[in-house]
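Input (structure):
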């Protein structure tokens, strides 16, 4: 898959690799030491700390609908739905997916952020390239079994399943349009109509 910093070079800062790669431990020490205030949504990707995507109704609407459907649909004895919270991929990458359905025991780890998830969702308004390239590789490398990208411009959901951690890719990819429904493969729950996300 290459070095972690290579993941973001093309998708975030073409032609310029970061001069210094931060680790999640570095970021925590800097924040705790008062060097800077880590804003909610700021993500560590491949050693680069990225600013959060600006909130907009196009982003918030689908996110809220998915949150409600997933929170009602999953078994609370097994899963916790986390909203825009850190997910620990490796020491150089700690993305903050819009939604992550994590095992109950992972949600309350004392030593680190969750390292496993049954489903990760990103809602893309201005971040589609990052979400479908860099983050896809990260989540596949972390072994996340199912990854959805909600494309708000095309009003569809890009579904990825069956990761190949060694290559940072998924064996199955499909696009679900407004007339279709999605059923989470691992975490369970009733089908979710794609059209409801954009209502």
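Output (sequence):
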């Amino acid at each position: 898959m290459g070095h972690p910093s290579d993941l973001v070079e093309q998708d975030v800062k073409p032609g310029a690799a970061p001069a210094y790669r931060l680790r999640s431990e570095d970021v925590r020490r800097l924040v705790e030491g008062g060097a800077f205030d880590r804003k909610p949504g700021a993500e560590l990707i491949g050693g680069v700390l990225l600013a959060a995507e600006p909130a907009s109704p196009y982003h918030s609407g689908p996110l809220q609908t998915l949150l409600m459907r997933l929170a009602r649909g999953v078994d609370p004895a097994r899963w916790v739905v986390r909203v825009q919270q850190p997910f620990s991929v490796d020491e150089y990458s700690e993305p903050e997916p819009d939604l992550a359905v994590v095992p109950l025991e992972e949600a309350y780890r004392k030593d680190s952020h969750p390292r496993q998830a049954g489903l990760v969702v990103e809602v893309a308004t201005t971040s589609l390239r990052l979400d479908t390239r860099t983050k896809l590789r990260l989540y596949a490398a972390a072994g996340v079994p199912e990854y959805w990208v909600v494309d708000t411009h095309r009003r569809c959901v890009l579904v990825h399943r069956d990761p190949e951690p060694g290559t940072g890719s998924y064996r199955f990819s499909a696009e679900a349009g407004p007339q279709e429904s999605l059923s989470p493969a691992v975490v369970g729950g009733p089908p979710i109509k794609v059209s409801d996300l954009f209502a």
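Notes: The helical segments are 4-9, 24-32, 57-73, 104-107, 128-132, 134-141. The longest strand covers residues 156-164.
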